[in-house]
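residues and backbone:
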Amino acid sequence: MPTTHVLIAGCGYLGTALGLRLVADGYTVWGLRRDPQGLPPALHPVAADLQDPASLRALPRGLDLVVYTAGAHGRSDDAYRAAYVDGVHNLLEALQQQRQHPRRLVFTSSTGVYAQCHGEWIDETSPVEPNTFAGRRLLEGEQLLHASPFAATVVRLAGLYGPGRTRLIDQVRQGTAVCPAGEPVYLNLIHRDDAVGALYRLMRLAHTAPLYLGVDHHPADQGSLLRWLAAYLQVPSPPLEAIPNSIKAQRRSNKRCRNTRLVAAGYAFRYPSFRQGYTAILTAAEA
C-alpha cells in the first residue's frame, strides 16, 4: 500500500502531536512552520511562513492530505487575519499553483465562531454570528476552505488542554482562581489527545461532513471544574465572585456544544469529560 503524504501547516502544539500519531501509523508527515528546528526528528521539516507566499513555493510534492493547525501570534485582529485568512489564502494559492491534488484539507477552527452566551445548546446547525474579531476571522478562513476546489473538513475545536497546558491547575494551586457567582458559566473543552484522535479519525474516512464540533461529552460549569481541581489538589476551594455586567456583556463563552456528529463519525473519546482528562494530567505530573 503506498505511503500517505501529509502536510501539517502551522505544526505547533496540536499539529506536532497529530504528526507523531500519523508517523506511528506509517504516514509520511511534513511539519510546516517558520522555525522547524524544534520539530521531532520523525517529522520532515518545512521552513515556511504562511504569511509569505514566496516561502510556500517549494511545498512537498504529491500531498494526499493537508491539515491546517496554525494559531494566531497575538490577540489582535491583525494577528487573527494573518493566521486564519491570509495564511489560508496563501496556502490554497500555493497548492493550486503547484497543481497539487490533496484528497482533503482539514482546518482546525474554534467554537468561538458562535456568539451564543446564555448557556444555549449548540451543534453544527446552530446560527453562526461571531461578535468578536477572532470569531469573524476564523469564519472567514472556513469560508475560504469551502470555496476552494479542494474537499474540505472544518473542525471547530473547543478549549484545548492537555500536557503542558496547566493554566487552570496553576491558578487553583496558587489561589488566584475565582468561581463565578450566580448562574452556571459553561466551558467547552477537549483534551489534546482527543483532538488528535478526532482529526485522525476524520482524515481516514472516505467521506466526511463539511463541519464537526470538536468537544468532549460534557460542557463544564466553570465553578464545578475549579472546585473539582481544588479538591483533587487538596487546596482551598476558589471563592465566589460576582461577574460585573460589563464583563458579562463581553463574555465569549457560556454555551454548551454537542459532539453528536463527531461521535456518529466513529470517534470514541479517551477523555469524555474534564475529570478524566485532568486526572491524567495530574497523575502524570505526580509521577
In short: The first strand starts at residue 5 and ends at 9. Residues 246-250 have pLDDT under 50 and may be disordered. Residues 77-97 form the longest helix (21 residues). The chain has one domain: 5-162+190-217+256-270.
